Amino acid sequence: MNKQPLQQLLLARLQADLRVAMEAAHTAHAAATDEESKAENKYDTRGLEAAYLAAGQSRRVEELRQALQVCQNLVLRPFDAQVGIQLGALLELEDEQGSLLTLFLMPAAAGIKLVWQERDVLLISPHAPLGQSVLGKGEGDEVEVRIGARVQRYEVLSVC
After folding, report:
1. SS3 call for 105
2. How would you list the strands of the sheet with 113-116, edge to edge?
3. What is the pLDDT of residues 134-156, one digit of tens each?
4. Among 8, 52, 56, 108, which one is most buried in terms of CB atoms within 10 A?
5. Is 122:103 a contact under the CB 8 Å cutoff?
6. φ, ψ for residue 148 (rounded to 5)?
7. pTM for this one?
């Protein structure tokens, strides 16, 4: 299976998110430096709140830039059963109730959900509990994820 179109879909999503974040950062910065944001008395915190918002938006822009760069530079390789699941793997898991979960293991942008080939694909990071547990696994392997006192089990149905 060719994962390049999925990677391109992710890159387009990150670029769109970056454009929106840059616009929001610009707007927040303009609000923070506007004459209207100047405190009228010691209890007026509009300017301070606007500055905090502008700083947060700027951090979001930088996070998206980094995620975009990392995802652009990742070379997607076909699954190698000798190595097991690695970054760039597209995998399908089945839980104990028979529900299917399609995951794309990426170094950044975890939590984004994409629709690709009529299915939801969730991006996960190798730093997440599920991402850690699938590393090195292959088709037919069982994966166990412990979240607090709860244990969730999956079977790896396919990997590419």
Report:
1. strand
2. 113-116, 119-124, 100-105, 90-95, 150-159, 142-147
3. 999 999 999 999 888 999 999 99
4. 108
5. yes
6. 65, -125
7. 0.86
